[in-house]
Predict the 3D structure of the following.
Amino acid sequence: MSTEPMIKVSSTRERLPMTIPALLDHKHRGEPLVMVTCYDYPSARIVEEAGVDLVLVGDTAAMTVLGYDSTVPVTVDELLVLVKAVRRGLRSPLLVGDLPFGSYEVSNEQAVTTAQRFVKEAGCDAVKLEGGGVMIDRARAIAQTGIPVVGHVGLTPQTATALGGFKAQGRTAERARGVVEDALALQAAGCCAIVFEAIPAPVAEVAMERIEIPVIGIGAGSATDGQVLVWHDLLGLYEWGSPRFVKRYAELRPQILEALRSYAGEVRAGQFPTSEYTYSIDPGELAELRQQLSENA
Ligand code: KIV
């Protein structure tokens, strides 16, 4: 870790903060919305500079950052730490916090209480929850308190076991109808946007003909109003492969590995640090130090 003071300089040209009405304007103008997940401060600074429209601190953090096997175990307190860090790094993108499994399903009161924590303690602009059915009531309850809510249909990882695993949803007419109906019900409940995950592109197209709020897709084709990708997928930070719908825009893991191996190799070979990376002291002061230490010996 550097001992230099951290200088926070914004190299970003000031952009207008993204708002809920602005999301809708994007949709009406046909300007695709760009969303990415993010889980820490330095990444948030990069996202800000890249000019992304929406940032999701997803419960994927459970797997990408915290090393759990699924998104299910992550707690509200764990996610809030990450959301706060991202908040400190962002100015203009709309910040959406994911309500984790078990933090909103039980009752409308539980859902509102958790959503309020994301807004009040961590500075989220909106929260996201997964699923249709009773979750539509939860979404409505949160929206009625004035907190913007993003719905999430199709593959909903928190309940992937019930869906038969991490696989595309809505591949029969009946199932696809369920996805579209859930989306329409979430819209009617007051959601400000919806995520479509892992559904056939033609199903998303049919849904888009009926939905008036912005829809962000992940594995749902190009008809949606925008796209979201997970940070670690997009940047190639895993040693394993990615789902079919992920395009890896970089392969950073091999580069990081190479950098770490070079560092380790140089430390072990006595090649780092060289004088260029060290502090000096006036020779007179050094002589004085030696003198004082030998007198005290
Ligand atoms: O948690 C998450 O990262 C998500 C995205 C995959 C949309 O829900």
In short: Residues 37, 56, 58-60, 98, 152, 195, 197, 218, 228, 230 surround 3-methyl-2-oxobutanoic acid (CB under 6 Å). The radius of gyration is 24 Å.
